[in-house]
Specification:
Blueprint lengths: L1 H13 L6 E2 L6 E7 L6 H18 L3 E7 L5 H11 L5 E4 L4 H7 L2 E2 L2 H4 L8 H6 L1 E2 L2 E2 L2 E5 L3 E5 H6 L9 H12 L4 E3 L14 H6 L17 H15 L24 E7 L1 H11 L4 E3 L10 E2 L2 E7 L5 H11 L2 H11 L15 H7 L5 E2 L7 H16 L5 H17 L2
Length: about 425
């Protein structure tokens, strides 16, 4: 751990020369952005951001933009180190779950004024997810979304006319597919899988939340949580979950969904839909809206440009952030990355049919229950859900035990 921390400090300090402030060799305002490989193809990623930098500087001669490509690995530690040491970047790409702690520390700057001119064009949930204490701390430049993907043929073979659209239909359909030795839901119960792509979407659909309104305790063990976990246990009893559901991940390639042993995954990404199409044929892949309980809701987070409080060129940084978030730039970013715009006034060039289907779920996007200790609470809860899936705990016992541990964790905040 000490080695990792030292590496993070060294990385942050090594970028100081390219960081905030004016370039000692010119009168230009230097704006440094720490960017991450949102575009997975390295060549396309480099070409895209080089063009963004060049085009912005051509229209803003007084600003020198430096886009520093960073790896995903170690991001949290490096960003925290840079903010604490007040060196390294002016802007950085972050998601909603990382903002509360930095807002509490006072190391990032509110950016309401950057979004204000086009506020009505942004997805409301994207702005809500980036708001802490009534202030907006991120300028959205892309949006992710999850949605159900399913094997059309398996449902047809079981005599089911359409794939489940609600949690009730999911439960009712389970025995019909089980008779064909197919599990209706490809549920990934392995604790390492983010609960945002396993248990939480079911909890949210049933009207539940992870945290109480005041953030001082958890609420996942309320009636909605028990109902949600009981649904999984009922599905398991009906043959509606894979036999190894407690230990399986959510990989599509080489998994049960690709091999035809399960029929639906409720919280998939567009990339996973493509992977399933490669395995079973694109014509056999269906893409639905989020499964509905008391509400229809899907996990999806905005990626946003966040401004460091220590930046010496905030006006220039805000101007660049507004440019990256513009319709023209975000449309191209969506095209190259496979993600989605965080705006409703953007048309993505050459968007695939599967992407268009996923885009229908954007209106239901929810970034998760943001809290400074959200990830730690997830780590506490996941093993208890696994224990219930293994038959070691019932739904109420599992969630109450997890809540007791989580509340102790929150009490130490």
């Amino acid at each position: 751990m000490k080695k990792a921390t030292a590496a993070g400090v060294a990385a942050a300090l090594s970028l100081a020369a390219a960081g905030c402030g004016a370039d000692s060799g010119s009168d230009k305002s230097v704006v440094t952005l720490w960017m991450y490989p949102v575009i997975s193809d390295q060549a396309k990623n480099q070409a895209f951001w080089s063009k963004v930098e060049k085009d912005f500087e051509a229209a803003n001669a007084a600003v020198d933009v430096k886009i520093d490509q960073q790896p995903w690995e170690g991001r949290q530690e490096k960003v925290t180190t840079a903010l604490v040491s007040k060196k390294g970047f002016d802007l950085v790409v972050l998601g909603p779950d990382q903002l509360p702690q930095y807002a509490e520390q006072g190391t990032i700057e509110a950016v309401d004024d950057v979004v204000a001119p086009d506020k009505a064009a942004y997805l409301p949930n994207a702005l809500t997810g980036l708001t802490v204490g009534g202030k907006l701390y991120g300028v959205p430049i892309y949006q992710t979304i999850t949605a159900p993907i399913y094997n059309k043929k398996l449902f047809a073979d079981a005599g089911v006319d359409k794939a489940p659209e609600t949690l009730a239909e999911l439960k009712a359909t389970a025995p019909k597919l089980a008779a064909q030795k197919v599990a209706v839901l490809d549920y990934p119960g392995k604790p390492e899988v983010s609960l945002n792509q396993s248990f939480y979407p079911i909890l949210w659909a049933n009207g539940g939340t992870v945290f109480a309104a005041d953030g001082k305790s958890v609420a996942f063990n309320g009636p909605e949580g028990v109902e949600s976990l009981q649904l999984l246990l009922d599905l398991k009893a009906a043959g509606g979950l894979p036999e190894n559901t407690a230990s399986k991940g959510n990989d599509i390639e080489g998994g049960a969904l690709a091999s035809g042993r399960t029929a639906m995954y409720h919280a998939a990404t567009a990339l996973q839909a493509d992977q399933l199409g490669t395995a079973i044929g694109a014509e056999n892949v269906g893409i639905g809206l989020p499964l509905e309980g008391r509400k229809r809701i899907a996990f999806g987070i905005p990626g946003a440009l966040v401004l460091a409080r220590h930046s010496e060129n905030k006006d220039a940084a805000k101007k660049f952030a507004a440019y990256v978030a513009s319709p023209a730039v975000t449309a191209e970013l969506a095209k190259e990355s496979g993600f989605f715009p965080a705006r409703t006034d953007v048309t993505v060039p050459g968007q695939t049919e599967s992407s268009k289907e996923f885009a229908k779920s954007l209106q239901y996007a929810f970034p998760g229950d943001t809290h400074p200790k959200a990830r730690q609470v997830m780590g506490v809860l996941a093993p208890h859900i696994q224990a219930a899936l293994l038959g070691k705990e019932d739904a109420r016992t599992a969630l109450d035990a997890a809540a007791k541990e989580a509340d102790q964790l929150l009490g130490g905040s």
